[in-house]
From TrEMBL:
Its cofactor is FAD. It comes from the Eukaryota. The active site is at Y385 (proton donor/acceptor). Substrate binds at R322. Belongs to the FAD-binding oxidoreductase/transferase type 4 family. The record marks R226 as: Important for enzyme activity. It catalyses: a long chain fatty alcohol + a 1-acylglycerone 3-phosphate = a 1-O-alkylglycerone 3-phosphate + a long-chain fatty acid + H(+). This is Alkylglycerone-phosphate synthase. Residues 9-191 form the FAD-binding PCMH-type domain. FAD binds at residues 41-47, 110-116, 123-126, 175-181. The keyword Transferase applies.
């Protein structure tokens, strides 16, 4: 976005093609191979890992294969609760058309307005309602995958199969390096009878994390559960225009006394949780009752449905706020990780402190926003999102400084026991940590798979691993 604003356009595709069918994809791939061209598939273009950037050293003609016209639902199977769709369908359109038939796919990433079914699969995506419906790997039943060696597909669409290693797991997360996803079959669910929002406020982020840990132990998490720290809580409330926010209510002396005196909350430490309950009426009532009881044990105070609805929807505004901030010299973005429960609080605290130290060391002259939220709950850990931004006025190399800070933050995440990514994927931005994450043998296996399925490196976006050798030779 910054390069576009400043006219610093790097290496870009030479040609854009829009296939309308799997047959078109096969024809394009055959033509690309015969003409010694490279292909980079693109879905919604929402990647934040430089996954779609054209490698600057690529000398061949680069074709951008835009899947935008392959955007229809092929069929809905009401008996088996599955849906077959083309890979280019946008999440928002998929959900809207399923809703019209009485179903939902339950996959709701922050990028649902623009991201595609094929993109979800190729990046191992996760959605905000993962707790109820699962991640994309839990939803995926079958797919068609076109490679330079031919099309990969099973002969049956069964819920599970014991037939050696699962090839779908190789395609999930392959990030456009092995071929093109053309169609996919996913699970669908009847629309919930009830959808209800909720919220809580806790005196400290640590108490909120403890609340989440107990929820995971008891396995009573609702469809969505998100804990924001104090910095993000304040920012979210400052953006709110209605007069019924928690922040506004604290202006009332009685409300302030209840929260700060009787409950012992400090305005500069308190944090918030937003909840989404989905299911049958009695199921939602029971979930809400159990969470309300549990929250009290961790000094939580119920915040009401409107605050929960606002907090959930605010997530979709983050990218727009990022782009708006650029008008005022503010550079900001998000990055995420997964982490075991016993390391969540330490990791969050350490990474935020490191961001502030690095920014100061690199010459940032103004206070830095460094905040985090816990967004997905698992038995053994959680997903943590970080948001950070700074005012780049007075700096000649703001983008370079941003990259250095994020790299240092990622090193700290790994040092604290976190992963290189939870669902954004690797792309080129996080490729440097692949070897330490997987080990040399695993990287060798990935390269061997690449060499077998794409020996001429036609799918040359250079994500995940480095490819050695000329574009027309074995790897």
């Amino acid at each position: 976005m910054i390069n576009l604003r400043h006219g610093k356009i790097p290496r870009i595709p030479d040609l854009v093609v829009w296939p309308k069918s799997e047959k078109d994809v096969v024809s394009i791939l055959e033509a690309a191979q015969s003409a010694h061209c490279a292909i980079i598939p693109i879905g919604g273009g929402t990647s934040v890992s430089s996954a779609l950037a054209v490698p600057e050293l690529e000398k061949r003609c680069v074709i951008s294969m835009d899947m935008a016209l392959m955007d229809r639902i092929i069929w809905i199977d009401r008996n088996n609760l599955t849906c077959r769709a083309q890979a280019g369908i946008i999440g928002q359109k998929l959900e809207r058309e399923l809703n019209a038939k009485g179903f939902t796919c339950g996959h709701e990433p922050d990028s649902i307005e623009f991201s595609t079914l094929g993109g979800w699969i190729s990046t191992r995506a996760s959605g905000m309602k993962k707790n109820k419906y699962g991640n994309i790997e839990d939803l995926l039943v079958h797919l068609n995958f076109v490679s330079t060696k031919g099309t990969i597909q099973r002969q049956c669409q069964v819920p599970r199969i014991s037939a050696g290693p699962d090839i779908l797991q190789v395609i999930l997360g392959s990030e456009g390096t092995l071929g093109v996803i053309t169609e996919a079959t996913i699970k669908i669910f009847p629309l919930p009878q009830v959808k209800k929002y909720g919220s809580f406020v806790f005196p400290t982020f640590e108490r909120g994390v403890e609340f989440f840990r107990e929820i995971a132990k008891l396995r009573i998490q609702p469809a969505s559960l998100r804990l924001v720290d104090n910095e993000q809580f304040i920012m979210g409330q400052a953006l709110k225009t209605e007069d019924n926010s928690w922040w506004h209510s604290l202006k009332s002396s009685l409300s302030k006394m209840y929260i700060t005196k009787w409950k012992g909350f400090s305005v500069d430490q308190m944090c918030a949780v937003t909840c989404v309950y989905e299911g049958q009426s009695d199921e939602v009532d029971e979930q809400e009752r159990r969470l309300n009881e549990l929250a009290e044990k961790f000094q939580g105070v119920a915040g009401g449905e409107e605050n929960g609805k606002y907090g959930y929807r605010l997530t979709f505004a983050i990218a727009y706020l990022r782009d708006l901030g650029m008008n005022y010299g503010v550079l900001g973005e998000s990055f995420e990780t997964s982490v075991p429960w016993d390391k969540v609080f330490t990791l969050c605290n350490n990474v935020k402190q490191l961001i502030r130290r690095e920014a100061k060391k690199l010459g940032v002259q103004y206070p830095v926003l460094a905040s985090c939220r816990v967004t997905q709950v698992y038995d053994t850990g959680a997903c943590v999102y970080f948001y950070f931004g700074f005012n780049s006025r007075g700096l000649t190399n703001g983008l370079e400084i941003y990259d250095k800070i994020e790299t240092a933050a990622r090193d700290e995440i790994i040092a604290c026991g976190g992963s290189i990514s939870h669902h954004h994927g690797v792309g080129k931005l996080r490729k440097q940590w692949m070897l330490s994450t997987h080990g040399a043998v695993s990287i060798g296996l990935l390269k061997a798979i690449k060499s077998e399925i794409d020996p001429a490196n036609v799918f040359a976006n250079a994500n995940l691993i480095d490819i050695i050798g000329s574009p027309h030779s074995k790897l």
